[in-house]
Every structure is written in structure tokens, then in C-alpha cells.
Amino acid sequence: MPLPTNNIVSQPSTVHVHPDKPEEACGVFAVYSPTDDVATLTYFGLYALQHRGQESAGIATFDHGSINVHKDMGLVSQVFDEDVLQRLPGQWAVGHTRYSTTGSSRVANAQPAIVSTRLGEMALAHNGNVVNASKLREELLERNHTLLTTTDTEVIALLMADAVNDGKGWIEAAIDACERCQGAFSLAIATPEGILAIRDPNGIRPLVFGYFGDHDPQNGPGQYAVASETCGLDIVNAHYIRDVQPGELLWISETGVKSLQWAQPERRLCIFEMVYFARPDSVYHGESLYSYRKRLGNILAKESPADVDLIMPVPDSGIPAAIGFAEASGIPYAEGLIKNRYVGRTFIQPTQMMREAGIRIKLNPLRDVLEGKRILLVDDSIVRGTTSRKIVKALRDAGATEIHMRISSPPVTHPCFYGIDTDSQDQLIAATKSVQDIEAQIGVDTLAYLSWQGMLAATQQDTTTFCSACFTGDYPVEIPEMFKRSKLMLEKTPVKA
To answer: What does the record give as the active site (predicted)?
Structure first.
């Protein structure tokens, strides 16, 4: 069956400029529901996961073995409408919302990746980053494959297709491909026979599954959903069952759900998922991340108190920790910055005069709250410091007499190689400057970060089961030397691999 291309619109690639936060990962969603509109369910699942990627979105459905695909650049609500969704019939589906960590920002790299095999076409959605993708890509080229994109997702899909074409079934082919990949990969794969949900042995990026409808899946086949976060299940009223475990493969088909442990698990969930990336209403380890982030603020207040008049967050990411800080310290909480939540990414750039005026497009200070006050400002992280400096200036212009900043995570000193887009190490302010130097550069009276021990203790889990490489440089999966050199100041910073 030829690859559907009627919906692919050619658009120029965009120049990628790093903002002053680590960029989100990607969001994957899959649904198995022979009696429902799976395209619409997938649309809503991706809508709930929009925070994980805003560059492109795509959905592939399987209708009695035939594939239907639509993907394009833009937000989920821009890529899909009711007419498009009606052209995507099927009994199961896989969807993806993307932020590029490998591959440029252009429609050819939008997911799911579609490849043909002897058993029919498959659609693969991927969250993470395969660190040995360059080597695998070279091997595929040597085998006369034509690669249509620059993504590691296509590499995984072609490896799996090769295994199918060599005579393996879907499950065996998926395991064969995953065993050759190193790094982070949470996968949702739709085939003509059902859906695969797979997680790498370290479980660096999250993946959960659940069921919906009135049928109890313990009594036989039912309706199932797979998502990067539980908020993706909530929006379609699916009941969370559990996480897909590190090194686990789930096969969802008309016979129900089959689980295989394809690799020995060595759990290393990305701690920054809990600190910042995932939505605060998503559930990790039996509680919402809102509760975890409040606890970060509680610990931060004990570690780094300050004599101030009020506690305020940088919205929205700093809100739970600021509330936790206020609760632990007994100092009043207030919102001194109002966020315009309707500001998205735009191709219309402000003038130089507007840029110099600060960050008023997204955040506006409340003068009557701030004037004459000593404030403590809480945020989840500082990456380059440019946004923090603008915020501090805006608060002083609004009349704050003292500004003390507290960060609910340790200093970000190392780039991520596992699916989070961070700047190269020389652009990370904490990699090149002391806390005192950062304090002076962003213009605060005092600055303090949460300790690494405090961040991990707040999880109330085994602290050895997290990846915190962006704070420590201790990478749980070995990084190829050339890949390291693309982001690390190796001559200055010895890195454990």
C-alpha cells in the first residue's frame, strides 16, 4: 500500500532558537477501541499532551488493516478539525505531538513515522532520543535504505521493518529493533493487527496505559489507551492501570493485553519530568506532580529561608513550589506576575524597542502588590538566565525593594541527551558561573537553589531510580564520543558516561 501523502503540506524549515527553558519532550498517545471514534479520542489525548511539543502533530488510524494518516506543522488544534478527523476512520490509532530533539523542524519529520513491511504498514510514535542513531543510520544507508527524514524515529521504524521483512512477527521485530537502540525511547506503534507500547530498559521517558468504557479488562478484551502522561488518559475518561514498565512491551489486540519483559529493567526516570516537564495534574508514583512540586517548595523553605514580605511564583511553572515555600515558612503567598496564557509561539517578532522593554508580552507585574515589598521569587529552574534577568528588572520597575530568588531544583550544569532539548553546556549559566555570579547577573539580592539531595528526597522513592544527569553529569546510558562533543565542554568538565 502506498504511503498516504495527500495531507502532507510542504513548508520551509524554521530556524531553531533556544528559549530560556529546556524544551519539552514529545507526547505519544494510542487508543484501541473498535467501537469508538479513535481519531477523535486520539485528538483529545494529544490535546492534553500539547505541553510536551508544539511544532507538529500527527495521527494514524487503522481501519480493518488499511492505514489513514494526517500530520502537519502546528498545534494539535491547528492540524486537525472535524473534517480531517472524519477522514481518519479506524478501530485503533496512534498519535504524536512533537518538539524536535533530533531532526529539524519541518513537516517531513512530523510523526508518526510510516513505513511499509511485508505484513502491511506500521505507524510509529516516539518520545525520547536514541543516542546511537547516527551509527544505526549509517548501517541502514549501507543496506540501501532511503531515509526520508532526519529523525531517530525513522531509524527505529526502519530497523523494525527490516526485522519484519526478514520473517519476524510484530512483537519479535519490535524487540529486535529495540535491542539495537541505546538511549531513551517510549514508543507507541500501530500495526494492522494491533498496538505495541514499549519502553526502554531505563524508562527515562514516561509511558502509561489504562482502559475506558464499562468493560473490566480483567474479564477479557476491552478498550485501551496509552499515553505519555496520565493527563492524556484523564481527558478521554480512561482509567489509569499502571505505567508501562522499563524494558516492557505491551501488545494490545482483539485478544486483550499481552505483557513481555524484553530487557532487564534499570529504572532511571528523568527527574526533570517531575520537576518541570510533565503537567502538574499528571500522576507519578501514586500522587499528582502538584503535590511533589509543593513538597519541593517545603524543602526549599527549610534549606534557604529569607526575611521577606511575600512569596510569589514565576507563573506557571513556579506556582506549586511557591505555595509549598509559603506554607513551610508562614510568609504570605501572592501572585505578583500575571501571565498571558494565550501567547504561543509566533513568527512575528517584537521590535528591538519592545525586546528591551522586557517580557511584558507574556508576564505583567502587579504594581500594587509589589510596591515597597521585599519579595521572594520562586521558579523551577534557571537555564541561561536571560528571562530571569528580565523578570527581576520588571519587578524592580514595579516597586519591589528587595528580590530574593529561590529555585526548586539544583543548578542545570549539563545538557540532556535523552529527549529534552537543552542548550550546549557553554550556554548553561550554571555550568560556567558560580551562584554568586549568577546572582549578580540576573540582579537579585540573593539566590539559592534546592539541593540535589532535597530534590530526590521529595520523590519519597528510591533515589537511585532517577536520571538527574542535567544536574550531575552522571549519564545512565553511555553517550557516543562525537555526540558528547556536540554539546559538552569536555576539556573543562569531566563527564561520567
So the answer is: 26 (nucleophile)
Kindly report the backbone phi and psi dihedral angles of residue 114, in degrees, each rounded to the nearest multiple of 5, phi listed first: -110, 125
pLDDT single digits (tens) 48-83: 999 999 899 999 999 999 999 999 999 999 999 999
> Which residue bears the cell 464499562?
214
Which residue segment(s) compose the domain that 117 sits in? 27-267
Same-domain check for residues 173 and 221: yes
Tell whether residue 409 is among the known ligand binding residues. Answer: no
Cβ atoms of 199 and 245 closer than 8 Å: yes
58 touches 49 (CB < 8 A): no
In a domain, 489, yes or no: no
Specify the CATH number for the domain of residue 322.
3.40.50.2020
DSSP state of 126: E
Task: List the CATH number of the domain containing 194.
Answer: 3.60.20.10
Q: Is 470 annotated to bind ligand?
A: yes
The answer to whether residue 260 is domain-embedded is yes
Residue 191 has pLDDT above 70, yes or no: yes
Confirm or deny that 178 is annotated as ligand binding. Answer: no
pTM: 0.90
Instruction: Check whether 181 is labelled as a binding-site residue.
Output: no
Q: Tell me if 385 sits within 8 A of 438, measured CB to CB.
A: yes
Query: Are 484 and 494 a contacting pair, CB within 8 Å?
Result: no
3-state class of 165 per DSSP? helix
Q: Which residues are part of the catalytic machinery?
A: 26
Cα gap 142→228, rounded to integer Å: 34
What count of Cα atoms within 13 Å lies in the side-chain half-sphere of residue 333?
19
Name residue, grid cell 520588571: 394
Kindly state whether residues 82 and 172 are assigned to the same domain.
Answer: yes
For 1, other C-beta atoms within 10 Å of its C-beta total 10
| CA separation, residue 241 to residues 205, 272, 289, 329 (Å) | 18, 23, 18, 37
Neighbours of 35 (CB within 10 A): 8
pLDDT digits (tens, 9 = 90+) for 117-133: 999 999 999 999 999 99
Number of domains composing the chain: 2
